[in-house]
Amino acid sequence: MKALIIDDERLARKELVKLLGEHSSVEIAGEAANADEAEQMINELNPDLLFLDIQMPGRSGFQLLESLDSVPYVVFTTAYDEFAMKAFEVSALDYLLKPITPERLAEAMHKVSDKERMKSARTRDKKLGLEDQVFVKDGDRCWFVSLASIRLFESDGNYIKVYFDTNRPMIHKSLNALDEKLDERAFFRASRKHIINLSWVESIEPWFNGGLMVKLKGGDKVEVSRRQAAKFKDMMSL
Length: 238
Hints:
The protein is α/β, with parallel strands linked by helices. The protein is 32% helix and 31% strand. It is elongated.
C-alpha cells in the first residue's frame, strides 16, 4: 500500500516515517510539506493512503481533500483535537493526535487493513454493467432504466443527477458510492462531479491545464480533470 505523508513539520514527517517502518504493508511513496505539493504528488503517484496534517501554511488538509477528484484513504495527524468531528465527516479512517505513539498508529493501520479487505471483497462482487437495469425514484416518479441508456451521472450536493433520454431525476447517493458499484470498463469517473458512460462518447478534445473536454451523443459536454485525462486516453485508445 503506497502512502503519502503530508505535514509542514519536517521532524513530524521524520518521526512518522520511523514509526511506519514497523508496518511492512506500507510503502512510503513520498512526503509533502503543504497542500500544493501534496496535490501534485497525489496526481503523479496515485497513493492509496494519506497521513494528513490539518493546519498547514496555505490550504488546510480539509481544503486539499475538497480539491481532489478521488480521495485515497485518509488518516489525519494533528496536534489539535478540535477538528475530530469534521475529520470523520469527510470519512477519515482515523484521527491521530501528536505525538503519535506506536500503539495508536497500529490501531489506525488495523482500520486501514480492514477497509482494504472490505474494498477487495466488494471488488470481487459483480459490478453493474451496460446489460443491467436499475430502479430510479425521484419524488412520485419512478423509472426502471437500462444502464446502457444512462449517459451521465452528475454530483449535485448530496444527490446525483441521472441523465437518460430527456429525464434528469435526482437520487440521494454519493458519487463515490455509485462509482464503486459500476463496471469501470463501461463507466468512467471523469472528475469529482461526473461519471460518464463510455459508450456515449462522441468526441474528445484537449482542454485547459492538461484536461480533456468530452462530448457525449446528445450534446452534453463533460470536462475530464487533468488527473484523470491520462487514464481516460489509455481506456479509449487501441
